[in-house]
Amino acid sequence: MTAAVPIQGNRFVIIGGASLVGSATAAELLDAGAGEVVLFDNFAFGSEEAIAHLRDNPRLRLVRGDVMRLPDLLQALEGAQGALLLAAHMTLSMDRDPWGGLDVNVRGVQNALEACRVNKVRKAVFASSNAVYGYGPGVKGDLVEGMPFHSAGSPPAAVIYGATKIIGEALCADYRKKHGLDYVVLRYCTVYGERQHYRATNALYIIETLDKVRRGERPQVLGDGSETKHFVYVGDLARANRMAFEAAATGVAVNASGPAPVTTLELVRLVTKMAGGGPEPEFIPEDPGRVRLTTGGAFDIRHDAAERLIGWTPRVGMEEGIRRLIAWRDGNEPKPAR
Amino acid sequence: MTAAVPIQGNRFVIIGGASLVGSATAAELLDAGAGEVVLFDNFAFGSEEAIAHLRDNPRLRLVRGDVMRLPDLLQALEGAQGALLLAAHMTLSMDRDPWGGLDVNVRGVQNALEACRVNKVRKAVFASSNAVYGYGPGVKGDLVEGMPFHSAGSPPAAVIYGATKIIGEALCADYRKKHGLDYVVLRYCTVYGERQHYRATNALYIIETLDKVRRGERPQVLGDGSETKHFVYVGDLARANRMAFEAAATGVAVNASGPAPVTTLELVRLVTKMAGGGPEPEFIPEDPGRVRLTTGGAFDIRHDAAERLIGWTPRVGMEEGIRRLIAWRDGNEPKPAR
After folding, report:
1. Is residue B284 in a domain?
2. C or N: which end of chain B has fewer Cβ atoms within 10 Å?
3. Which residues contact residue B26 at a Cβ distance below 8 angstroms, ignoring those fewer than 6 apart?
4. CB contact at 8 A, A326 and A210
C-alpha cells in the first residue's frame, strides 16, 4: 500500500488558500498538472491580491467559505483527492483574539479532517509549525522530530499557538487511527517570499527591514541580534506540500526548513544589502509587552527526515529568496506559467 | 498586593463540581467556613451520588449548567470570590469523543475564565494535570514545573488531552496578563479516594483491582508492572485547592502529587492486601489498541513548589488512602461534619 497521490489530473483543495503559502502551492500544483485547484478561504487573513496572479488559470477555482462552518468544507471537498490544511491563526492574531484563534486552529482543523473523511479524500497535508518545539532556552541545537514542547516562561499566545499545532497533528493521527485517513504533517519554519504579509512575528524582520531601508530609516534589531531564526522560502515550501501528496509516506510529521538558520542581525544586514544598502541597524531593547518568540540558544531545524520520507530538501537560500521577495515587491516578479 | 482569598464567609463556585474532586473540595471549603459553595455541573460525568453526602448542607447549592453555555457560567459565578475549574474530559473520553472533549477543555475553560472576568471573581484555581509533562521515555527522574511536554509516539487522545491542559494554563496566564485575573494552576496527579470513578486511565489500577479481588478474580497488571505511576489522595487534593485560594500566590503552576510514586505492580499488590488478600496478579501483554499512558523510566512528580508557593504538602500515603477508598466502597465512610 502506498499513500501517494499523484498531482496530474487530480483535484486539490487548499484550505486557507488565498495566502502566501496557499498561492505558491496552488501555482506549484497547477504547474504539476493538477486537474483543479480549489482555494477555500474566508478572507479573514487571505486576500484577493495574494491570488490575483493566478486568477486567469481556468483550472483554479475560488470558494469563499469558513472552516468553522462544516457544511462549507463538506461541499468544497467533494471530489477532492487531496486537501492542504493551511487555515490558522498565528501567534500575533492568537494574542489579539484567542477566541477566534482557538476556533480556527482546533475546531477548524477538526472540521477540515471530518470533511476529508466524509468525502473520502485520499490524503491530507497539515501545515504544522516548528512552534511544536516551543520557545526559550530549552530550544537549542539540532531540532529534530520527536523533541518535546518547551513553553515555560513564554507568552501565553505563543504557548497556545504551539499547543494548537500539537493538537492539529494529533487530530490527524486520530483520524488515521480511527478512519484510515492518510496524512503528512509538515512543520513549517517561518515562511517568506513573494506575497509576504505582516502576520508572522519572525518574518517581520524581513518585511519591516525592507520597508525601513526603502524609507531611508534605520532597520531595527531587538536585543543584540544574536538570536537564531530559521526560515523557509515559500517556493521551497510549495514544493514540499506537493511532494507530501506525492510521497508514499503517511502518518508522519517532518520539519520543512530552509538550508540554514540565521541570526536576526545577519538577516537584517542581508535584507539591507539586498535592498540596495542603507544605514546601520539600530539595536533596540526588548519590549516585555510585545509578543516575541525568543530562544536562548542557537538552533538548526533539521530537514533530514523530510528528505528521507518525502524526498524534499530546500533549494533556495536566504540571499536568493530575499532577492525574489524584493523583485515581487518592486513589481518585477516573473509571470507564472499557464 | 496579595492574591489571597480567605474561605470564611466567601462564595466559591466549583465548575464540574458533582465529581470526585469537586465533592471533596466542597466538603473542605464548607468545613473551612465558606459562606456558600456552588456545584456547577451538567452531569455528563458528574453524578448525584458523588454529592449525595453533602446535599443536606444548607450552604451547598447545586446549579445545573454547561461550560459550553457562557450564560450559564455568567449567572452561576455572580457574587463569587473564587472559582475552581474542574470540568474536563480526561484521556479516555477524549479518545471516544474528541469533539466534545476539545469543546469542554478549550472553549469550556475560556468560558469559565470569561465568566470570572465579567463577575470580578478574585481568584481562579485551574485543575491542570501532570499530563503537561507528557508521556513516554522522556518523562523520567524528578518531574518539576518548567519541564517540557513529551508527546512523540503517544496515543493521539493522550496528546490532545495534555495539550488542552497546556492551553488551559496559558489561557489563565492570558487572562491575568490582559485582565488582571489572579489564578493558581494545580497540576493534579491521578486522583483516587472516596467516590472513585472509572474514568481515569491510571486510577483503573486501583478500582478495577479492588473489583476483581472482591469477585475472587486475579487482578491484572499490564506489562511487567514496573511502570511508575504517581497518585494523590482526593482529600489531600481538596486541601490543595483550598490552600490555592488562601495563598498569596498568583500566576503560578505547581504540581499536586502524593507523598511518593509507586509501580503498577506495587499498587496492585497493595490494593489486593488492603482488600483482604487475594490471588496473585496476572501479567497481561500490552494491547496496542488500548489508550494507555506509558512511560519508559521511573519518575517522581515533585511537590516542592506547591509547598513553597501555597504551603501544601500531601499527608495521606497510598496505604491510608486506599483504606479510606475501601471503607467508602463498603459503606463505612465516616459522616461529614456540618
Report:
1. no
2. N
3. B14, B17, B37, B39, B51, B54, B60
4. yes
The CA distances from residue B59 to A112, A272, B79, in Å, are 47, 68, 14
Measured CA to CA, the distance from residue B149 to residue B177 in angstroms comes to: 23
Q: φ, ψ for residue A125 (rounded to 5)?
A: -115, 120
State the Rg of chain B over Cα: 19
Under 8 Å CB-to-CB from B289, ≥6 apart: which residues?
none
* Average pLDDT over all residues of chain B: 94
Residues of B in contact with A134 (CB under 8 A): 148-149
Q: What is the CATH number of the domain that holds B66?
A: 3.40.50.720
Q: Is residue A17 part of a domain?
A: yes
Domain interval for residue B43:
11-193+232-257+299-316
ipTM of the complex: 0.94
As a whole number of angstroms, the distance between CA B19 and CA B196 comes to: 9
Which cell numbers in the block locate residue A126?
A: 497539515
pLDDT exceeds 60 at position B311:
yes
Q: How many domains does chain B have?
A: 1
DSSP state of A199: -
> Residue A159 is nearest to which of B106, B145, B170, comparing CB atoms?
B170
Q: Could you identify the residue written with the cell 497510598?
A: B318
Please check whether residue B120 lies inside any domain of the structure.
yes
Strand A123-129, strand A60-64: pairing = unpaired
Q: Measure the CA angle with vertex B191, ends B187 and B196; round to 5°.
A: 150
Count of all residues that appear for chain B in the document: 338
B85: part of which helix (H) or strand (E)? strand B82-85
Chain B residue numbers touching A152 (CB-CB < 8 A): 145-148
The CB-side HSE value for A192 (13 A sphere, CA atoms) comes to 30
pTM: 0.95
Among residues A125, A86, A132, the alpha carbon closest in space to that of A108 is found at A86
Reduced to 3 states (helix: H, G, I; strand: E, B; else coil), residue B230 is coil
pLDDT of residue A291: 61
Yes or no, beta carbons of A156 and B138 under 8 Å apart: no
pLDDT of residue B334: 77
B268, part of any domain: no
